[in-house]
Structures are given as C-alpha cells and as structure tokens.
C-alpha cells in the first residue's frame, strides 16, 4: 500500500511539473522564463510595471503571481516608510534601522572588505523591511567641496571609488536586494540640479566621471542604475541617448534596469527611445501635484500607451524594458532562495562601528606638554590616567546627525552621540567629563515626520556661550571641540550647495577664544566636506569624524582614546580655499544661465581631467591636507620598492612590491598607495594617478611585503580621436607611499 501511495505521489509530481508554466519553472533558464512571462502579459500589465504606483513601489503582475516591487532610499541605512504618495512618515513603529557611516567615511577606510560587510549588513536590513531595491550607493565625483551631497559619495578619485563600490554592491545583492548605483552621471553639484546642462570633454567623462559607474556595471553586475537630474548634451540624464543607450546599455552591456530619479523624467518620447526603464516621481503624478488618477499620468504610463495605440510606436521598446524588469523580478521578488533578513542586530551595529573606526581620519597630531609634566607628548590618544578633566565643546557633540540631509535621512533605533561616547570612556577611566555648548546652530531635530525628541533650544547669546566654554576650558586638561557642519540646508544636505567653505555659527570665533586659554585642544570635525581651517597651525590635533551613523559616539571615543588606532585616509583633497579648486579657479561653477532662457544653466567642466590632486599637482599648489593623507598612533616605513619586470607588453601584468614595517610601539594599519606617471605622452596627462592600494595590518616591529599588480589599463588614457582607451609604449614610473604627497618610493619601467 505504501509503495502504491509513493508511486501515486510521484506521478502527481511529474504531472504538476509537466503543467508548470515555464515562467514559474525554476529548472528553466532565466531568459526563457522571461520570454514566457512576457508572452503572457497584456499591454496594460506591461505599462503598469514600468512606472510607480506609490512613492516607492511599482506594481508586479498579480494575475501571473509577480509581487509588487518595493524600493527605498538607503545608501547609509533603510529609510523609514512613508505614506503611499507623500514624503511624510507613515508613523509605523517597526521601521527603525541601523545607520551606517556615510560613504565618505566608507571610502576613507580604503578597505574593500569594509565595503563588502557594509553592503551585506545593509542588504539584510532592507530584506527584513520588505525592500527589493536600495537606491544607492552614490559614486559621483567630488568636483567641488561646496557640493551639499558629497557626504553620500566616495570622494574625488575614480579608481578609489571604483574599488570601493564593487564589493558594496556584491555584498548587498548577495542578499537578493538590488543595489541602484547613482546618480548617473555628472551630478556634481546640487544647486540647480534639475536645470544644469553639463559640458565636459569625452576624455574627462570617461577618465573621471564614469569609471566607478562602469565598475559597478561590469565588475559588480549591479541590477539597477539611477539617472541623474541634470542634463548632458541638452538631454536630461534620466532619458539621455548617449548616457543610457550608447554607453550604459551599448558599450557596457548593462542588462539591468534604469530607474529615474524621483521627478527626473520630463518627456514621454525621450523616455521611450532613450533608455529609461522605470519611472518614479516626486509628486503624485510626476507632472503636477494633486492630479486625479495620478500614476496613470506618468510619462511612461497612459501617454506611452496612447502613442502605441496610435501606431507611433510598436511594443518593441516596451518589451525591452519589460524584459529588464522581469529579469529584476527574478533576481529579487521571484527568488525563492533569497537570504533571511535581520533588523537592528548587534552584528549590524558591529559593522557600523568597524567601518567608523577605520574611516575616521587623524589629520594632525602634534606634541603638547600637560600641566606639571616635564616632557611633551602627542596629544592623542588622550591619556586619561594623567589628564583627568575633559571638556567637550560644541553643538555637534549633542546633535543627532542621522536625521535630515535629504533622502538619506533615517529613523534609527539608537544613535550614540559624541558626548555620550566620550562620557562613557571618561567614566571608565575615572576621569571627569564636562560639557559646554559653545554655539547654537540648527536646533531642528525633525525631518519628514521623524522627530528626535531632543530639545536643542538655547536662548543665550553668542557671547554668553563662548564665555561659558572659555571659563570651563581654563580648568580642563583636554578640550575636545566637536564642531564642523550639520545636515541643514546649505551645509551637508541634498538640494543645495554650500555657499562657502567656512564653518557656520561663529565657530571660528569660538575656536580662537578656546585656544587663548587652553592649548591642549582636539578638534573633531563632523562633516562630509572639507572646511576652512584658519586656526589649523594653532591646534595640536585634528580628527575628521564624518557622519558616522548609529555608533558615532563610540567610534569617536575609540579613536580619541586609542582603543582604535586610526587608519583612515582622505578620499579627497582638503583645499586651503576655493582658489585651489579647478571648477572655481576657472570660474565655471555654478555655470551661466542660458541667454533668453531662465530654465537652463550651462556649466562647462573646463578643468577637464584635472580634478582634486590632479589639479593641485598641475598647478604646484599645496593643499591643507593631501588626498590619501591620514596619520596613525604608530609609525610605518615603506621601503625596498621593486617590480617583477622592467619591461612589460600590452598583454602583461606588472607587480610592484614594497616592504612595510611598523616602526612604532602600537599595532596599526597602513595603506600603501601606488600612483602611475606617464613620463612622456602624446597628450597632456596628470603628474600621477592612483592605480592601486592595499591596506596592511602590522604588530609593533612587524614587517610585511605588499604586492600590487596592474595591467595596461593602469597606463591608459581615453583617446578622443578613436573613442577608445590607449596605452602608449614608453617609459613609466610607479610612485609608492602612504599619501599623494608622500610617495617615497619610485620604480621605473617600460611598456613595449
């Protein structure tokens, strides 16, 4: 009887398998399943999946069993849920998250392993929250320190951004959640972002602004790309023929989905022909506020269907974008093997803290003599066994930075503030920690309905606040000033650029007053951008603290006390002033309003490939802190540079090796940086370009060999005449060190 039952079950199973539609049959190739699903869809169903049905979702195909598709902002953490078609929060109690450090901090780790665990943890948070696509990471280039959104990106160098974005994407997508790399492309300032038409040379486009996107597509296999708001060649990038059809889908072979930025679509026919796949909008219809039957009025909705029915277009273009969307479904919502999601786990907090610890950059650390001490020592790490009285100054020490700033604003389960972290380590060491506000900046602690609940109101005058801080500083062994920028408009924030490089809220005045009464001062800069430091030479220690997320206070305390030995390196050049920035020195930022047209502002990237250290090198300028700069509590020696060959051919690799020794008395990590110089070229080339790096951890006295391998791609430039990359035979130099201005090793070689 048992045998008969088993036989019956097997027969039933075979019969079921035989009747299973191809699109649901996991044994069939994905592309075959896509074609079968496509053949079963009606015109209305095809149109439905290519545009939004709510602020952050698009419909699936209910009749065929495809679930709705849910996106969310979240380059640094999963954004709280919003109302169906508004930006205000939905008021849920289960949509908190872990806030991870902003991407400037991640890039400052110079450690791709940090990107991998970051992407994995964020993917798990998204999956738990029911999100199928996270709108990030961002890889736009740091062209000017005034860009309000620089904190969301990975710095000025295309190679560094490329190496850091790939593992982030792989980590997230390993969880079955699509990354959506953004903002493609040339979105390098926020002011007038909907109206800026960028003019840039083909060479600068391919050498500076596109490499990280290309790596995301060809190396990471990203499933989504978000178009930028701005224009290029007089077409908006969300439906730009050159950017989307030629480069992205043609040259790079992108098989994923192009998503519009919210409200980034402006024209139905351009959207049809120029490569946009999914349209989302900022308002309820993407056209006007409050229209009835809103989502059917999107450019890729009823207007598109009408043009097909009128015969102006066939379903050819529609089927291509539906295929891409179905491919995305099979990678995400239709993937029954997706990993499990986890929300606010301690493992995720550990990731946030690790990234923050590694990303904090020690910019300066000079010797100072403590009271009643005969010898001087470096002020950091803080010696709380001798300096028992610590004064923390600054609003940024008590202000939550996870709320505000635009689309990256979060609702966190917890955020350890800098003051809280410093208080905790002082208490553990038997030291006292006092606080003085020093200045009042932005007291707002809410964004789109997320309310922090901390009252930052303070009606005291500037003079009273400074006087209190100065009086307390007189009796302190250490003063830790936590200042910089915040996420208010015209600071580090989406939608606007900074107006200048100065610290706001009379902070420079506060700094000068503190230095008059206490020289043992540590400045912790909370920002995603470089700021002016007119008092730099008077301050013994400067720490770049970024926007560090949930574990901000703990990470800052880790570094200040030496629990974590800083190993971060700057991902951008820290300029003395805007005259050291090509875009400003040449007068091209923010562009010029087009004659007779108050809707378009033309911005020419006249500096071309000379962005960041490439510009300062060319013009023999000395920035405040160089690209790749970052100190440690130990010391390192890089020596013995050599190559495995003196002559390489176009098909060869060449490997450079150096010995790195920890010459200090603490365990630490150093970043070996390799730059390539083309000694003589037929075109103008930078003095050097980053083409390799490796982070190495060493115990005191330990030596390790570090090898970095490159191929002809590292020697190549984009040849505008042929529209291809070209490596010219001749002499080259590999310059190796631990910062772009500290390259102590040179190896000469030849390309045949």
Main β-sheet, spatial strand arrangement: 1-2-3-4-6-9
Q: If helices are DSSP runs of H or I spanning 4 or more residues, what is the number of helices? A: 19
Compute the number of strand runs. Answer: 31
Cα distance spanning the termini: 78 Å
Search tags:
disordered N terminus; 6-stranded mixed β-sheet; alpha/beta; Rossmann fold; 19 helices; 752 residues; Immunoglobulin-like; globular; 31 strands
Outline of the structure:
The protein is of the alpha/beta class. It contains 19 helices and 31 strands.
Descriptive report:
The protein is of the alpha/beta class. Among the domains are: 349-561, Rossmann fold, CATH 3.40.50.1700; 635-752, Immunoglobulins (Immunoglobulin-like). The strands form 8 sheets. Strands 1-2-3-4-6-9 form a 6-stranded mixed sheet. It has a 6-stranded mixed sheet with strand order 10-19-18-17-13-14, sandwiched between helices. Helix 15 (462-474) packs parallel to helix 16 (507-517). The protein is globular, with a radius of gyration of 27 Å. Mean pLDDT is 94; it is low at 1-16.
